[in-house]
Amino acid sequence: MKRYALLLSAVLSVACAGTTSTTTTLRVAANSPHRVAVATDASGWLHAAPVQTQVLQGADGNTWVGFWVQTPAVVAQSVERAPLDVSLVVDTSGSMSGSKIVNARMAAASFLESLADGDLVSLYAFSDAVTELAPPTSVSAATRAELIRRVQGLEASGGTNLHDGLEVARRAVERAPSSHPVRRIVMISDGRATVGDTSPQSIANVAALATENGTQVTAIGVGTDYDESTLGAMAVRSAGRLYHLEDPSQMATILHSELNLLGQTVAANAYIEFTPAEGVAVEGTDAVRVDRQGAVVRVPLGNLYASQQREVLLHARIPTTANGARAFGTARLVWQSPTNAEERRAADPIALRYEVTTDAAAPARSYTERVQAMVVGFEASQAQLRASRMLNEGRAEEAERTLAAAEQQLRQSQVQFSDETVQGNLMRQADSVSRGRRSAGSAAAAPAASRPARARAAALENNADAYHSMGF
């Protein structure tokens, strides 16, 4: 039997190095006749497995554990739509003048029209300071027209107080009653923080704090001058979403897309809880926020929608000194009812195990396809983020080569795996990386005068696609 190996020691540098990750090589075990059992909880939503169920005695113990959530399809007519609490926060700094502010007015008005009676909405504008357009207000026939009138008066001037705009929205949603457990801050911005606390870490911390009340942040970057790192951190820290809009006219479409997803919520304020076995250490990656309560690790997921697939990959170190079967840890999915924040649900924990062996051939027969594919996808996302930074630094040719290598790895892995879901995930990500590669190539080939603008647009496209691939 041909041996395959996953170079976990190489991939470890990605998990631990943060944004300074380096390119690594990954070989995958494909089409193995040995089917590895995947643990699934009683709800059928949460699945989990280590990347290998057998490890060689005396190995360094560096490995991966993957979790994926598959929510059921829900017929909309049979499920009561959860009431929403949404805070819409619009950047009205001077750079938003022209088509951006015009489209922001229209998109906000259309968004308000689409909210259901009984939803709660608060409206804020921020430039040098924050302006409250409307405190948390119950949407009704009596209030909707006035709310629309207020957003139609948005004007652009001044600087960008991103921190205070987010903080005021967080405090507004924090007051949400338990009858409205589906909570979201939607922030539209085209620039970088220039007023108040401009620290990206401080701004991301506000987004993280919002999750204590079950609130996620949808960050919408408009144009080519916004701070993608800060908006991306807001999405990751709150288990939210990131959108890149080069064309301001797309704002209304994105707001309606977000509203549609919120309306399909089947679980609110969800998180994966993993309790490592004795001797097992677990670490997060750039692609996931990890909270710790003693030995217990929690990964916030935010709201889960009908028919959603959500993947989480964690790095782990496991003991490999003693032969035999060993416990890896236990995992469970915890969430709130989308119609009642007081109703918390959780399936019984599922147990993960592995075996330490002296059979040198055994580890290569024990790979879990889904988790292997998650590692491949993680590597590709990190490559796109590196390419984005290269493009911002004027290294378009190097970015194109980095993306070409990532695309090749994804396409090779796609044909090697047998699971249809895995193949589909890798194919979609390969297509995304391919688009980013072409954009980088166009920037590299552009005339000198237009190259910086083309490279900046390609950087933002690759950055947004990388976050999307990571689930944000």
Task: Report what the structure shows.
By secondary structure, this protein is of the alpha/beta class. The protein folds into three domains: 33-74 and 266-366, Immunoglobulin-like (Sandwich); 78-263, Rossmann fold; 371-469. The protein has helices at residues 8-17, 99-114, 141-151, 162-174, 200-210, 228-237, 251-263, 369-392, 396-416, 420-445, 451-469; strands at residues 39-40, 46-50, 54-56, 62-70, 84-91, 120-126, 130-138, 182-189, 215-222, 241-245, 265-276, 281-283, 291-293, 296-305, 309-317, 324-337, 340-346, 350-357. The strands form three sheets. Strands 3, 11, 13, 14, 16, 17 and 18 form a seven-stranded mixed β-sheet that branches. A six-stranded mixed β-sheet has the order 7-6-5-8-9-10, sandwiched between helices. Strand 9 (215-222), helix 6 and strand 10 (241-245) form a beta-alpha-beta unit. Helix 4 (162-174) packs parallel to helix 5. It is globular, with a radius of gyration of 23 Å. The relative contact order is 0.16.
Helix share of residues? 25-40%
Q: What's the SSE pattern?
A: HEEEEEHEEHHEHEHEHEEEEEEEEHHHH
CATH superfamily label of the largest domain:
von Willebrand factor, type A domain
Protein structure class: alpha/beta
Q: State mean pLDDT (0 to 100 scale).
A: 88
Radius of gyration: 23 Å
Overview features:
single chain; 472 residues; alpha/beta; Immunoglobulin-like; Rossmann fold; 3 domains; seven-stranded mixed beta sheet; six-stranded mixed beta sheet; 18 strands; globular; disordered N terminus
